[in-house]
Design brief:
The protein is α+β, with helices and mostly antiparallel strands. It contains 13 helices and 25 strands.
């Protein structure tokens, strides 16, 4: 939906000007995510869960933010995540002091309550810091009501949310600006702020020390040792991102944000605060390659539940609590520069055949670790039933385009059927193998060119990076076909060591869209599969460089401007990066 300028909202709040996407960091606890800019402003946070309305929506031009920053405007910023966590330490250097602010969404998390922790510390000199807290439920539409201070804790409420803030007893509530205050800290001094947003009236004390200890303990238990992998620090960071995006339900959102544009003023900006089953499978397969870690069980459980519930009507995406995703609609906000403001996603109603192929591969990986539950086994059998009925039907494919007979969708299904044939006993296994042969035979007839390479679709001879996915998974359809297809993709879709999805007629690479980072990591895996270790590392290292200072990947990368494009952090890119780190190190526990 596109609105004319006169229908749109007033100009955005200039107190939170936008930054290039590469500068933003993200805090997450599995149930929601907060986007943090380098100056100390939290400009995006939905509450109580991912798919709910934002209470801080300055990122897309709405009202609402939570700022802690040096009062001295003459400063530079930096920061890093504590390894293996999404605990962020922002760092500001002024002419007279060095300040750090440790920040996290508290864990273990609850679906009805979030707690945001911010601990300021002056490392050198003396500092004055400013506080501005302006919660605006309903994507900025609603102001908190009845603000009051009780025992040094500020409270307010609106739209079914109740706020508590500890650590700012001397701040002042100024309508319409919200809570304003400042802090003066000497060298070595610390100060805590604890913000709670919940759907119930909470009485538990907001004990910063206890909340920090619990959060640190959760992260220590959540992220496994990656010291034997390639790029171990980045591998642990990728795992932390996946954990931070995964709900207690098992559902993993594709990204923490909505409406961040893939290309300026092109209409290509979407809401990714939902769980795509395909993305969930990518993450589960990546983690399973490393070992039977908890995120494998999460993925298997969520995907199996959705397939058993919906069968032939399985949707590509759901909310993390398993509900359908609504159609796209506008919020009438200004949007991030170059983008529009959307919630909902029309892809939620598409048919994407390859989802079943990825699900079958995930279930087979779980079986290899003796983690295939009875529920997942039944979901696997049902997936085979659906494929048997639906594989001849055109689908929207990996890139969610128009319905066509996409080659990748069929090859992905063949890959999944073959993997399940190896783990299902008796007639179920034979049925999978026979169906794989049937699908492959017809796909060869329709989609294999005389020179031995796969065409993009039955009616399209062009290059398609999605065709690398089965190769990356080790599913071969003939050495000549794989080599010819991989070489053709590399020759047509590469610019400066980065890989694009497909060609746009009449437009050069990089003009129509950014390089696809999922594809770059997939090319690294496919190149590794054909025995070119040096080439695989080149692809891996080049693609790994396409992130901002916080080490987060978006879906696309503007090669010429060296900028991120689209929502972040993009879960399936971090998943494929993790799988590369496992397989290139020779540490995979899967074929």
């Amino acid at each position: 939906m596109k609105d004319s300028d006169d229908e749109r909202a007033a100009a955005p709040d200039t107190s939170c000007p936008p930054w290039a996407l590469r500068e933003y960091a993200v805090l997450a606890d599995g149930e929601r995510g907060a986007v943090l800019d380098p100056r100390g402003r939290i400009v995006w946070l939905c509450a109580p869960r991912w798919h709910d309305d934002a209470v801080f929506s300055a990122l897309i031009g709405g009202a609402g933010h939570f700022t802690v920053e040096p009062a001295d405007p003459w400063h530079v910023w930096g920061g890093s995540y504590e390894e293996g966590t999404l605990i962020r330490v922002s760092r500001w250097v002024t002419s007279g002091c060095v300040i750090e602010c440790r920040e996290a969404l508290a864990m273990p998390s609850r679906t009805d309550r979030l707690v945001l922790l911010r601990r300021m510390r002056v490392e050198r000199g003396e500092a004055r810091l400013k506080l501005d807290l302006d919660p605006r439920p309903g994507f900025g539409e609603v102001r908190m009501r009845e603000p009051r201070r009780e025992g040094g804790v500020w409270t307010a409420e609106a739209e079914g949310l109740r706020m508590r803030l500890a650590g700012a007893p001397d701040a002042v509530w100024r309508d319409p600006a919200g809570l304003c205050g400042d802090f003066r800290l000497g060298e070595g001094e610390t100060h805590d702020l604890v913000l709670e947003l919940s759907t119930a009236r909470e009485t538990e004390p907001l004990d910063a020390d206890a909340l920090w200890r619990a959060t640190e303990r959760e992260w220590r238990q959540a992220v496994p040792d990656c010291s034997r992998l390639v790029a171990p620090r980045d591998a642990r960071h990728a795992y932390a991102v996946l954990r931070g995006l995964t709900s207690v339900s098992g559902g993993m959102v594709a990204a923490a944000t909505t409406s961040l544009p893939e290309r300026a003023n092109s209409g290509r900006n979407y809401d990714y605060r939902y769980a795509w089953l395909r993305d969930q499978c990518y993450a589960g397969l990546a983690v399973a390659a490393h070992g039977p870690h908890p995120l494998v069980d999460d993925a298997v459980r969520f995907v199996a539940e959705r397939i058993l519930a919906d069968g032939d009507e399985v949707r590509p995406a759901y909310t993390v609590d398993g509900r359908p995703v609504g159609p796209e609609r506008s919020l009438r906000l200004p949007g991030y520069p170059g983008g529009n403001d959307h919630v909902g996603n029309d892809a939620g109603a598409q048919f994407q055949l390859d989802t079943f192929g990825e699900a079958l591969q995930l279930f087979a990986a779980a079986a290899a670790h003796d983690r295939l539950t009875e529920e997942a086994r039944r979901a696997a059998i049902l997936s085979v039933d659906v494929v048997e009925r639906q594989w001849l039907k055109p689908d929207a494919g990996l890139w969610e385009l128009e319905d066509r007979w996409w080659t990748h969708s069929r090859l992905g299904v063949v890959c999944g059927l073959r993997r399940m044939a190896e783990v299902l006993p008796g007639k179920d296994g034979r049925r999978c193998a026979d169906l794989a042969d049937t699908v492959l035979r017809e796909t060869r007839r329709r989609c294999l060119l005389p020179d031995g390479r796969w065409r993009r679709a039955e009616d399209d001879d062009g290059p398609e990076a999605a065709l690398l996915v089965p190769m990356a998974r080790g599913c071969t359809f003939g050495d000549h076909h794989d080599a010819a297809t991989r070489a053709y993709i590399e020759s047509r879709l590469t610019e400066d060591g980065y890989l694009f999805r497909f060609e746009h007629p009449g437009e050069s690479l990089g003009e129509a869209e950014g390089a696809c980072l999922l594809c770059g990591f997939t090319m690294a895996l496919a190149t590794h599969r054909v025995g070119d270790r040096v080439g695989a590392f080149r692809w891996f290292e080049r693609t790994r460089a396409a992130c901002g200072p916080p080490g987060l990947f978006a879906e696309e990368y503007d090669v010429r401007q060296r900028q991120l494009r689209g929502n972040l952090p993009q879960a399936f890119v971090h998943a494929m990066m993790l799988e590369c780190a496992v397989r290139l190190a020779g540490e995979s526990t899967l074929p």
